[in-house]
UniProtKB/TrEMBL annotation:
Gene3D superfamilies: 1.10.287.70, Potassium Channel Kv1.1, Chain A, Voltage-gated potassium channels. Chain C. Residues 14-124 form the BTB domain. Keywords: Cell membrane, Ion channel, Ion transport, Membrane, Potassium, Potassium channel, Potassium transport, Transmembrane, Transmembrane helix, Transport, Voltage-gated channel. The chain crosses the membrane at residues 170-195, 245-266, 316-337, 349-368, 380-402. It comes from Mola mola. One of its GO terms (cellular component) is voltage-gated potassium channel complex. SUPFAM superfamilies: POZ domain (SSF54695), Voltage-gated potassium channels (SSF81324). GO terms for biological process: action potential; protein homooligomerization. This is BTB domain-containing protein. It comes from the Eukaryota. GO terms for molecular function: voltage-gated potassium channel activity.
Length: 470
């Protein structure tokens, strides 16, 4: 029975009345004793004369009305009280899941009673909160350059911001734009160098890239090399830097240039066969296409697309499975149906795989095609099945991309807003505590942020009003 407002009455024997933020609730003792270790069960079973125990369990107590008062969230309590009746708890919409965990801890209810859907929801929100904490930590690190102990550390941090944080300053933005343009110029030079009309003949009469393009490529590679070395030298964690996928791509885009130079030099000064050297050089030049992947480091959209594809591995796997089954079935049918034609183009089932691939993906080069009536019917069915198989997983993949992109925008905004709140809170504390030594606000925020990044978000006093609502 729940009574709100001024409605009240004396509790019967075996009942307990609690007032949660102005909402009066009368609960049966037999129901509360289902969880004897909970706070309400302890209140029910303790003596009303033992004020010390009662004061440790509730905020206030009215002996005349035998009513216990709690300054807690009544909406959250409505969810928690369900455990006594249904042996499970559902988190209602609009309640912060992290704050709800604090409520469960206060009422001494184990988290295992949460329903599975709420556990998944809670896990997602905890991950989001940790991500916000990491973003806040990065922001505070950017603001803490001047606090570094030595001059070398300050220079290293400033150089790292210059090379890795385009939004930190105007020079950093200029460096990022210059790097972006250099990547584009390098890609254009690689493509233009393959146009026969622009190539020149070398001493042996073979067409090679003109010297002008080679000079531009050398300048681009020098920029990539200097940029990579500066980022490596200023990195706070060089091991993590070396193992990063994007940094591996950067290295793979640089190393072929120097390997070509080394092989060319060795080919002219040793007994190495010139033909083998030229073949190796040609193979290494193909690796220059890795430079285009450097654009991902400067494009948040490409990074979001990569993360969305990672989250869509299940859908992509289903797509490949559908296509694999269809390719095998329709290629086998096509081979069987076309054997009766004297000029058949389907010589074997493995050769028919190519026809099935280009047909189901609606490419249709026309180099291999059926000539019998049954083969054409099989081709029509394979075409329709391919369109359906490709269309089915596309929507979940697009939805994952949109959800992840919007989520990242929300988390970045939440992190910036949280930093502003923390600065305001620290500023007010500094004004109220004038007897303390003057410190940078980020200095006082730093221990809190370390706890956030480590996952300790429920006890963080630097979050005004608790963790941010997600």
């Amino acid at each position: 029975m729940i009574l709100t407002g001024e409605q009240s009455g004396l509790c019967s024997e075996g009942e307990i009345a609690v007032n949660i933020g102005g909402v009066r609730v009368v609960l049966l003792g037999d129901v509360l004793n289902r969880y004897p270790e909970s706070r309400l069960a302890e209140l029910l079973n303790c003596s009303t004369q033992n004020y010390d125990v009662i004061s440790s369990l509730c905020d206030d107590f009215d002996p005349g009305r035998k009513e216990f008062y709690f300054d807690r969230d009544p909406d959250a309590f409505k969810c928690i009280v369900h455990v006594y009746y249904f042996d499970e708890i559902h988190i209602e919409r609009g309640i912060c899941p992290i704050c709800f965990l604090q409520e469960m801890e206060f009422w001494k209810i184990d988290q295992n009673v949460l329903d599975e859907c709420c556990k998944i929801y809670l896990s997602e929100k905890e991950d989001e909160l940790k991500e916000i904490g990491n973003k806040v930590k990065v922001i505070l690190e950017d603001l803490d350059v001047d606090r570094c102990g030595t001059r070398t550390q300050r220079c290293q941090r400033s150089l790292w911001k210059l090379m890795e944080k385009p939004g930190s300053s105007l020079p950093a933005r200029i460096v990022a734009i210059a790097s972006f343009l250099t990547i584009l110029v390098s890609a254009v030079v690689m493509c233009v160098g393959t146009i026969p009309e622009l190539q020149v003949a070398d001493a042996e009469g073979k067409l090679v890239e003109p010297p002008t393009l080679e000079t531009i490529e050398t300048a681009c590679m020098l920029w990539f090399t200097v940029e990579f070395l500066l980022r490596l030298a200023s990195s706070p964690n060089r091991l993590h830097f070396a193992l990063s996928i994007m940094n591996v791509v950067d290295f793979m885009a640089i190393i072929p240039f120097y390997m070509v130079l080394s092989l060319t030099y060795l080919g002219t000064t040793t007994t190495m066969e010139l033909v083998n050297v030229q073949q190796a050089v040609q193979a290494l030049r193909i690796m220059r296409i890795a430079r285009i992947f450097k654009l991902a480091r400067h494009s948040s959209g490409l990074q979001t697309l990569t993360y969305a594809l990672k989250r869509s591995l299940k859908e992509l796997g289903l797509l490949l499975m559908y296509m694999g089954v269809g390719i095998f079935v329709f290629s086998a049918l096509a081979y069987t149906m076309e054997q009766s034609h004297p000029e058949t183009l389907f010589r074997s089932i493995p050769q028919s795989f190519w026809w099935a691939i280009i047909t189901m993906t609606t490419v249709g080069y026309g180099d291999i095609y059926p000539k019998t009536t049954l083969g054409k019917c099989n081709a029509a069915v394979s075409f329709l099945c391919g369109v359906i198989a490709i269309a089915l997983p596309i929507h979940p993949i697009i939805n994952n991309f949109v959800v992840f992109y919007n989520k990242q925008k929300v988390l970045e905004t939440a992190a910036k807003h949280q930093v502003e709140l923390m600065e305001l809170k620290s500023g007010s504390e500094a004004r109220s505590c004038t007897h303390l030594p003057v410190q940078s606000p980020h200095t006082r925020l730093w221990p809190c942020q370390l706890r956030i990044s480590a996952g300790d978000t429920t006890q963080c006093s630097q979050f005004p009003g608790g963790p941010p609502m997600l």
